[in-house]
# Entry
Amino acid sequence: MRTLCTVTQVREAERAAIARGTPEPELMLRAGSGVAELLDAVAGEPGRALILAGPGNNGGDGLVAAARLAQLGWRCAIWPYRRSGAAGAPIDPAVAARFEWVESIA
# Structure
């Protein structure tokens, strides 16, 4: 695996983008949508996706990715870790309601 950038570099880039006027929800939309578009292009057709969504902004990015995948015809399951639903993620609540929320993986 090749490191593209460090955590420090990503955090600094996010701070700089916000300082230039890009709202944090917009950064989430860009990140999550980008991941979803790439996955959809690589897969070639809609399928099933399991998103592991934690409590922070990366979890929000994952929920945005799931929402975009759902718009593209994917079936998305969300495994929330220390997260209660889609709160804080800039996604349509109606889309989030269509996710399969997984309580445990056994």
